[in-house]
Amino acid sequence: MKPIVETINLKKTYMLGKVPVHALRGVNLRVYPRDFMAILGPSGSGKSTLLNLIGALDKPTEGKVIIDGVDISALNESQLAELRRKIGFVFQFFNLVPRLSALENVELPLAIAGVSKSERRKKAIELLKMVGLEDRMKHKPMELSGGEQQRVAIARALINNPRYLLMDEPTGNLDSKTANEIMKLVEKLNEEENITVILVTHNQSLANYAERVVHIVDGVLRGGDE
Question: Which of 54, 25, 49, 23 is nearest to 37 (CA)?
Answer without folding.
Answer: 54
